[in-house]
Amino acid sequence: MQKVAIVGFGFMGQIHAQVYAQLANAEVGGVVDTRLEEGKAALSKLGLDAPVHENLSSLLDSAEIDAVDVCLPTDLHHPVVLEAIGAGRHVFCEKPISTSTTKAEEMVHAARDAGVELMVGHCIRFWPEYLAITEAVAASRAGREVAGANGSSVTLGKLVSLNLQRFGGRPSYTIDSWIDDEERCHGAALDMHIHDTDYLLHLLGKPDAVFSRGVREKAGWNYISSNFVYPDGPVVSTEGGWLLPPKWGFRMTLKAVFEHAAIDFDNTRDPTLTLTLGDEAPAPMPYPRIAAATGAESDGNISDLGGYYNELEYFVARLEGGKPIETNTGAQALESLRTALAEIESAATGKVVSLT
Questions:
Q1: Do residues 94 and 168 share a domain?
Q2: I need a surface site. Which of 158, 175, 229, 334 has the fewest CB within 10 A?
Q3: Which residues contact 245 (CB under 8 A, 6 or more apart)?
Q4: Is 238 found in the same domain as 103?
Q5: Is 2 in a helix, a strand, or coil?
Q6: pLDDT in tens, 221-256
């Protein structure tokens, strides 16, 4: 049983608490939040009973804790992650790992030197539909056939192009509106768009270069459009931001075009994921909810929490089994941060930025 301390009990901290409550091998061992009464009320509302402390050291001194889950604003990740690592605890840290590559490197090196695990919450790698897309791209590379309608099967062929988009209104639920401070957040380019940047690296590896354009407001780069250079690879573009009106909603999409097929994902559509093979009409593409660490599949919802469930189930199961984190490692998150910051640099300078 892994007892987890959640540091920061706002929107995301409460999401994580709901996941741990569903896992048989984990429990919320405590919460750290400077808003003590609000933290206690939120725990009670979720039906959970755990101590609430104003700082991490106080909680670690008074409760048995195996891992620390950091759900603080991005600029506060660095000191708390280092404190948890220094106390010998494994760490799950929300994305992005930091606003600074120097601080991120220090976190990664500290975890390595201390022999503890550091996982970062780039949840799209674990999102149900994206898991299916990852498998499809792997099948494309290997020349494996995929199932089509009416029992047919076909090879997808080479991946020709890939486009990812992520849009919404600026979030209004952050404590003290920290996302409106460019120094603390760096805008949508780093806080939201980095989801697609990270998934792109997960899917295709590191690109050679990037060229971006964007819109910078007082709160940072809140719209960005990027083209990535993969020599002899697919044409790749990403786009996203918070420039939409508040009630427009949230939308994430992905279009992958292969030589003989196309995959289309749109979270606002039903079905969300379709596959068009050869001359067939578009058809729903299955994406079983996968318990990531066990490989168990379900034809229904393991959880309405989607990728959040899968990533934390993986984190806990890896700790329980004494196995290293291999997906969403601190080192991988550092590369995603470097790439996203290169996109911001390109947008700011109007120049292509090399990533090699």
A1: no
A2: 158
A3: 169
A4: no
A5: strand
A6: 999 999 999 998 999 999 999 988 888 889 999 999
